[in-house]
Task: inverse folding
């Protein structure tokens, strides 16, 4: 007799609380279900079920075997599903929430490539630096950079993001270049308003954290805007190197305080809690992971 059929019969009897219910679910005669379970017990040399006229209950051996058997059947189902899914094209709509600057600079290409590879996919994107409510706004996946404040979210790290501190040559000539983070208290800085000031202006040196008191007159909820303002000679900016690198290479900004690096932060794909993640969203997440794994920021 087929061992898989024996496992299915045994698990069905337990799951559906009896041979009659199991036979209905499996579409088999009750006698056939009973025969398969009996054959399984005979082959194992142990009783799995205590049978009475009214009900069946698991023996100690049956309880342990049931856990193993359900895992085997679940693994088999998953393997079959993976193979079946690989043979069919994904389709449907994906709703994304992306940070504005990062979305434009870093995510446009992988999204364009994904749409090219999957012609039956639609993508609806909310480009906004605010942290949207994934459940309330019906978002399938969001990209977030930095510490994740909501522990209920399901997160997958895609990349590490390097941070830099910069100012224009004109600013440094006029105000001098700070040589230590503590000297930033004597300068004007630009603040990213979506993150607490103390969390975005801190540095490390020999295992110690330095977090100076800051003064500022301009804050904004978009890092790329702050980088542009700094390039015009107003204040010092600190943020992801992805926003600042073009300005540095163009000579519009100069990297400072290089002896006091800021800790890297993560870029994450996050999913709403309590919702089954669709295959199209999983495939999209895998695409982003493969794309960013080869890149450094």
Result:
């Amino acid at each position: 007799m087929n061992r898989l059929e024996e496992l299915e019969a045994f698990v069905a009897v337990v799951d559906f609380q009896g041979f009659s219910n199991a036979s209905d679910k499996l579409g088999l005669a009750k006698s056939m279900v009973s025969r398969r379970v009996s054959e399984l017990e005979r082959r194992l040399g142990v009783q799995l079920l205590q049978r009475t006229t009214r009900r069946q209950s698991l023996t100690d051996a049956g309880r342990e075997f049931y856990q193993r058997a359900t895992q085997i059947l679940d693994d088999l189902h998953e393997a079959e599903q993976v193979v079946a899914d690989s043979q069919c094209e994904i389709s449907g709509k994906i709703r994304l929430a992306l940070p504005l600057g990062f979305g434009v600079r870093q995510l446009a290409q992988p999204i364009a490539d994904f749409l090219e590879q999957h012609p039956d996919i639609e993508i609806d994107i909310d480009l906004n630096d605010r942290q949207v409510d994934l459940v309330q706004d019906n978002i399938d996946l969001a990209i977030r950079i930095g510490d994740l404040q909501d522990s209920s979210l399901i997160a997958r790290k895609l990349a590490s993001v390097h941070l830099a501190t910069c100012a224009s040559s004109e600013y440094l000539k006029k105000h001098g270049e700070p040589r230590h983070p503590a000297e930033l208290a004597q300068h004007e800085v630009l603040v990213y308003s979506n993150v607490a000031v103390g969390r975005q202006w801190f540095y490390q040196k020999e295992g110690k954290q330095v977090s100076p008191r800051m003064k500022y007159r301009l804050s904004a909820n978009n890092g790329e805007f702050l980088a542009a303002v700094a390039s015009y000679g107003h204040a010092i900016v600190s943020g992801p190197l992805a926003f600042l690198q073009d300005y540095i290479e163009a000579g519009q900004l100069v990297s400072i305080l290089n002896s006091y690096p800021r800790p890297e932060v993560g870029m994450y794909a996050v999913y709403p809690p309590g919702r089954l993640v669709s295959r199209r969203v999983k495939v999209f997440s895998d695409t982003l992971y493969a794309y960013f794994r080869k890149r450094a920021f």
The CA atoms of residues 58 and 64 lie 9 Å apart. The chain has a mean pLDDT of 86.
